[in-house]
Amino acid sequence: MTRMLMNLTFSTRCQGFLRKTAYKAFVSLTAFTALVAAPIAKPANADTLLLVQGYLGDAGSWRASGIVPLLYQRGWADAGHLYLGPGGRIVSSVPTPNSANRLYTLDLPTEAPIALQAQVLSANIIEARNRHPGDKIVVAAHSAGGVVARYALVTDANAKISTLITIASPHLGTSAAEMGSSLSNSPLSWVAPFIGLGTINRSRALYRDLWREGPYTMLGWLNRQPHPDARYVSVIRSADIRAPYAGDSVVEGWSQDMNVVPALRGRAERFVSPGDHGLRPDDGLLIADIVRAGGHGQERQTAAATN
After folding, report:
1. Counted domains in the chain
2. Is 3 contained in some domain?
3. Strands (DSSP E) along 36-76, which ranges?
4. Per residue in 171-218, pLDDT tens?
């Protein structure tokens, strides 16, 4: 069974290589301006940042990856972790720091359907707004977390934010989710819990939500719903920055671009970041720079290190 999964992963990477070749000519026509290193500066006053993990991620990944420490260097105080406390109230793991700019991580049931995850995220956004009235709420979301964030904004008018930054998010779906659905409906699903692959069964509904968009898919519906006024920023992760739309080993680059979403066409900024699908330490610097720069509708290519 393990060899089968390794072969399927290799097949997915081969598909990414073929897509890279197909899209290279198109992407070469797109102007990407270099994002040059800027001196460390204090971010805009009164910003609250929520960090949202992706599929099988957890809140600790934002700290373990080095992103939170780098954000701290850029003036973002770590306000701790938001979780459901006694009486069903959302509480923080630490006292609120005395800082104009702060960040939170939060709990999210990352194997659950998108709609359920969006309800949890909405509650955390509302909690952040209540804790810091008048602040600009910024959400930075990785992978499937970016789709969760858009679903929350579309379906809950109280989940108001100023900026949504998505990193390697499958806004138009991913073949990896379709492969997951195939596995969850195969004989492998019978033995999966005994070989440490129980997530295949637990994530069955989530995989369906992340199928490539079409007339009868969740993303086909979401991508055509009115999106609230906000700043939308796509960080496109690509193994080859010369062909950004090739994407990474999990999500094609064009699927990571919110400008391809019908409801957001022409409204999103695009940044290209080198590397594979996972979180990277320099994502912290990129998030800080994006928030500090404000919305200029530019397309940029990051000069992040590849280590």
Report:
1. 1
2. no
3. 47-52
4. 999 999 999 899 888 887 887 787 778 898 999 999 999 999 999 999
